[in-house]
Amino acid sequence: MKNLLLAILFYIPAQSFAIVNEIALDFGYDRQIYGLQRQNSIVTRTYSAALSTYIFDYTAIDLSASKSQDITTENQRYTVATGIDLVGQQNRISSTVYGVGIKQMFAPRTAWLIPGISLGYARQSLDYQSDLTIENTTTKARTVLDGGTTQQKIDSVFGTFSLQFKMTERLSLKASVKTLFPAFEFNKARDNIKYSFGFSWIF
Fold this sequence. Notes:
- The protein has one helix and nine strands.
- By secondary structure, the protein is mostly beta strands.
């Protein structure tokens, strides 16, 4: 029996055992300006990487990691006490996400346009930081007050829709729409949507 198994393995084409991997790198940037004097801003930066191992032609196990930061800056003046004005506030949210899931593509890797979706479990770590800037209206001296850091860990679900545009046999440009929300709270999927662009490489 052992010899028979060895003979079968010997005659099966080597390609049958070929494992196809794909690595993807994405970057997202968003900047919003608001306020009557355009004095306030929200800036979001996201970096992400994913490794996909195809277990079937169109289906892969997806391992991903991402890092993002949302910075909200408000420069508005409020009087908080006699001679003291609040003139600025900044909130920073840093998010680190590790995920594992399934990716399903809807076209062969040889196609020039390949749509796909990914869905899976993610572990999200959040750091909240804030500070206030106050001004002495008499001396015009300003002081920055550190609001400290709050941390939170959340079991989440991630979902991604992507479009890959084939450039070469192995290289593709990629555009993605991603959502991340607490596990089983599907009504919150639309509350956290990010757009990103990058590339993928087959090896």
